[in-house]
Amino acid sequence: MKHILPIITALLCVNFYAQASEPAGKTILARGSVLATNETAQQRQLQRRDTVFGIDRITTGNQSKAQFSMLDGGLISLKENSELNIANYQFDKNTQQGSASIELLKGGLRSISGVIKKNGGAYDVKTPVGSIGIRGTHFEVQLVDDNVFIAVWDGAIDLTLTNNNVLSLGDNEAFSFAQITSTGDVFTTTRAAAVFDQTIATIEPNSESEETEQTQTASTNNTIIEDDSTADAYSEQQFQAVDNAFLVDQIAQRQGVFNYSASDFSVASSAGGVTDFSMTMAVDFDNGTVPDGEISFNDAGGTWYAAYSGLINVSELDLAVTFASYGNNKAQGDIDAVFLNDLDTIIGNFQLSEINNPDVNASGSFILEP
């Protein structure tokens, strides 16, 4: 009896917790220390596939990061040493309507808005200097000391400052990047701040122009990056929300083998720039398996190659690397992937490293489509 009571108590706590708030999304990546704290100060360590709720405050530790697929298909990525409060995230899958409000308290986040914003719902991100209203976008926010840095990679945002002035950034605006100080001073520029780990193609300044007058272009498609903290499954594509029950029906209806290949990717390598990225995956819906898949790309040190296979497990794919190499050296790795868009999209992350020298490594994210 003494062993049964703690189990019953734990189940009651879980049931109460589930009833206290509606789910806001799912964890699709959790590396290092990723904690969720509810309104009663209960904490839990988040792992891949774990649900996040509308009362959760999520924190990432040192050398940690997390990524979440929200109810409406929106994507949120948290960098290390970050703190995010999910103040509100409501979405009706029948009407495809909802609203969302999140608050970045510390660190940095990257986000792509989903169906809520696409269908005209309210979606805002609160920061220490004001509230960001989204106009269908892919954007990034980083808090550094008392400064807020903002980058808009696609779409546009309206930042309502604490003095009620509105700063608009992104498409059809003069600038896509800004720094706002704690005193409300605003510095806009066409060059992304160094705090953003993104490779951006810029036109070098000439002797007659200032940095804020330079032309800059940024694209998330086929971006080659050199820092693992940006190796997340993101693109400019707007994803559709999918629940597990719906996916079970979709998987049951599909027949045969579907061959997926990379439509978008981000790659980081310890040897620098990456070229010739290729990734394929065969999904056998009749047998519920991934019979084979391959990843290959080049960097300054040679060619990375990995073969993998696995099983379909509802929204996710349980994948295992069966062989990996870097040049003539043996390597190891792991792959995480999930279905989106009625099974027409697979997003995920991978990590590879030499077995005898783990400091030689590469990692990245991918989006696969038939």
TrEMBL record:
Listed Gene3D superfamilies: 2.60.120.1440
Protein name in the entry: FecR family protein
PANTHER family assigned: LIPL45-RELATED LIPOPROTEIN-RELATED
Keywords: Signal
All residue ranges annotated as the FecR protein domain in the record: 56-157
Signal peptide residue numbers: 1-20
Coiled-coil boundaries: none
